[in-house]
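#struct-help
A.M.: can someone run this one for me? Single chain, 223 residues.
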Amino acid sequence: MDNIVSAPEPKVTTGSLPSSAKVYVSPEAAPDLKVPLREITLSSALEPPVRVYDTTGPYSDSSVKIDVRKGLARTRRAWVLERGGVEEYDGRPIAPIDNGNVKVAALQPFPNTVRPLRGLDSTPITQFEFARASVITKEMIYVAARENLGRKEMLATAEESLADGESFGAALPAFITPEFVRSEIAAGRAIIPANINHTELEPMIIGRNFLVKINANIGNSAV
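D.P.: on it. Structure tokens below:
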């Protein structure tokens, strides 16, 4: 591409958050996974820290160096390739329409551009297709661990806590298993947004029987 204008490196806010720490858990079903949680320190020293859902991504991990031009690490790409049924192909070059129809000279090249993936024949590639085929993916294992937070330590009182309130038709178990995740996706009651070409994302599940009930994209786009 000719006449590329050099622009200063964009910055993004990173670093730890006050009174809390980013921690990781590794599920038994896939010990190689690192599932993020946020551990919040309470004002009373007599109370143990409380773990909550962490949506801050690698930006709040002080051990991760963020380079906006290089983008986030594509952790899930290895999971997708491991499952097979996909191939790389030559994608099209960046065009003005991808960035608000700016002039060609203002388009910025990115050093981490990888060849996109596409599915082969009728091989499953979506989480829904895998769930319908009774296959538990690493994404399903990941979100099960993320949903549980500290439930494993509180199983003795979990049933009592679930009974204390109105379920409004939900069917939340005391402990979230990868199989429960798979069954909810297969039944069409939940989704994991996990496009095979967005492998930098941290899997999360959205559905009536999970912590996140509704997902919405609110914003302004030129495309």
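A.M.: thanks! The radius of gyration is 21 Å.
D.P.: also worth noting: The first helix runs from residue 75 to 83.
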